[in-house]
Design brief:
Layout: E1 2-11, E2 18-26, E3 32-41, E4 46-47, E5 52-53, E6 57-59, E7 65-67, E8 76-79, E9 82-89, E10 92-93, E11 99-102, E12 115-117, E13 120-123, H1 126-132, H2 134-138, E14 140-143, E15 149-151, E16 157-159, E17 163-166, E18 173-175, E19 177-179, E20 185-188, E21 191-194
Length: 196
């Protein structure tokens, strides 16, 4: 890293238990990188960022797929209504959380990450979503559960028949990113998810 700059570090006025941190810098090749934009629950001393395991496949504009751990700033990803550019990266670790699988797939997501359903955005654990960001929590229309129908990359809403949790290594790297459109979505392992 070169030219590292802490852009923000403050406690939000709405919830003293939450702190926001932003780190911008350039890697050794001179490419600008944004890392952080994380929210920490000070009271419980844990980072609470909704994310995916590194092997989660992201739908790219060119029709290909890319592991989320390999996503870079400037990448063009498929969103609910077209394509968008990745403008921020949000790596973290699993910590004391669990990973969840849907319909027998790989356990790939934390409980606070919202999915697009027929009723709007839902996460497995809305209270964990609230710990991350109150504004994100306010976008939710409830808890994601069996029977809900979630939007997939084929444009069809598929019914959830199973949600399973597994424990993981607290040091497991997790990833998320933000896109430059108000669409607030991208496709992870085929599911339409919130871009945080």
């Amino acid at each position: 890293w070169n030219d590292v700059d802490w852009e923000h570090s403050f406690i939000t006025p709405y919830a003293a238990k939450v702190i926001k941190v932003m780190l911008r810098g350039r890697n050794t090749a001179g490419k600008q990188i944004t890392i952080g934009y994380s929210f920490m629950n000070i009271r419980e001393a844990q980072v609470s960022i909704c994310c995916f395991i590194g092997e989660t496949l992201i739908d790219m504009r060119a029709g290909s797929k890319k592991a989320i751990k390999d996503i870079e700033l400037g990448d063009l990803v498929v969103v609910e209504r077209g394509t968008a550019e990745v403008i921020e990266l949000h790596p973290t670790t699993l910590g004391d959380r669990q990973l969840y699988s849907i319909n027998g797939g790989t356990a790939f997501v934390t409980s606070e990450h919202p999915f697009r359903t027929e009723e709007g955005w839902k996460s497995i654990d809305p209270e964990r979503t609230k710990l991350e960001r109150e504004g994100l929590y306010e976008e939710l229309s409830g808890a994601l559960q069996i029977g809900d129908k979630v939007l997939k990359n084929d444009g069809v809403y598929h019914e959830i028949t199973e949600i399973t949790s597994v424990d993981g290594d607290p040091n497991t790297p997790l990833y998320n990113f933000t896109v430059n459109l108000d669409d607030h979505s991208y496709f992870a392992d085929g599911y339409c998810v919130h871009n945080k």
